[in-house]
Amino acid sequence: MAEEASMIAAIGAVAANGVLGLDNWLPWDIPEELAYFERTVEGAALVVGRATYESMDVVPPDSFVVSRQPDLRLKSGCHRVVSVEEGLRQALATGKPVFVIGGASVYAAAWPYCQRFYLTRIEREFAGDTLFPDVIPLADWSVLSERVESYLERKSGAPVACRFIQYEQANPRVP
Ligand SMILES: NC(=O)c1ccc[n+]([C@@H]2O[C@H](COP(=O)([O-])OP(=O)(O)OC[C@H]3O[C@@H](n4cnc5c(N)ncnc54)[C@H](OP(=O)(O)O)[C@@H]3O)[C@@H](O)[C@H]2O)c1
The domain 8-17+28-115+138-166 belongs to what CATH superfamily? Predict the structure, then answer.
């Protein structure tokens, strides 16, 4: 796990055309990128939108699911929260590092509170129905690290470059 307790970070992946989702899943099939996500958030408290939560087979304990539905039933160890800010506060109270894991609507609300954004830029265009929010001013954040790997994208059978970038925001808001 990459972050210390009390730090709020976001993690996600985006295609060259800004797409991040298709049919409530990822537009691409790159197991190595998914494994990077799982490694990075291991042991963290997660803040996740209801749609993304429903797309996940395995949801770790201390996951805070943002939803306006008061009667939402969740897997054991998961908690409904009424807003992203409430989710961030409850996630911080666990004492674990906190990761915002999407989807688009949750990134759009959470970015002002994030000190880091772990963003994988997938250097190809993909068809999709959900876009990375263009309100997030990552161009103004500093780049802490950056590395590129080439992996086989399984749906197309073609290699694709994945650029793993860690951005840092200087003065994140307190939720
Ligand atoms: N590429 C990536 O890294 C990545 C990461 C995560 C997800 N995704 C993809 O993104 C897509 C889903 O994104 P999405 O934006 O459609 O859905 P989402 O953010 O996962 O969930 C949306 C739902 O969250 C709740 N919500 C969101 N903001 C809220 C707020 N401010 N207050 C209260 N509730 C709030 C609402 O739930 P209720 O309707 O229950 O009220 C809303 O319908 C999927 O395709 C998923 O696979 C991609």
Answer: Dihydrofolate Reductase, subunit A (3.40.430.10)
**How far is CA 175 from each of CA 66, 79, 90, 111, 116, rounded to the nearest angstrom?**
14, 18, 10, 11, 15
Domain boundary assignment for the chain: 8-17+28-115+138-166
Q: pTM of the prediction?
A: 0.97
Q: What is the residue-wise DSSP string for 39-104? A: HHHTT-EEEEEHHHHHH-S---SSEEEE-S-TT----TTEEEESSHHHHHHHHHHTTS-EEE---H
Whether the pLDDT of residue 54 is over 80: the answer is: yes
Residue whose Cα lies nearest atom 9 of ligand 1: it is 21
Tell me the CA–centroid distance for residue 108 and ligand 1, in Å: 10
Distance 113 CA to ligand 1 centre (A): 17
How does residue 81 score in pLDDT terms, banded at 50, 70 and 90?
very high
- Say what the pLDDT of residue 6 is: 82
Chain mean pLDDT for the chain: 96
User: How many A from CA of 102 to the centre of ligand 1?
Assistant: 6
* Averaged pLDDT, 17-44: 97
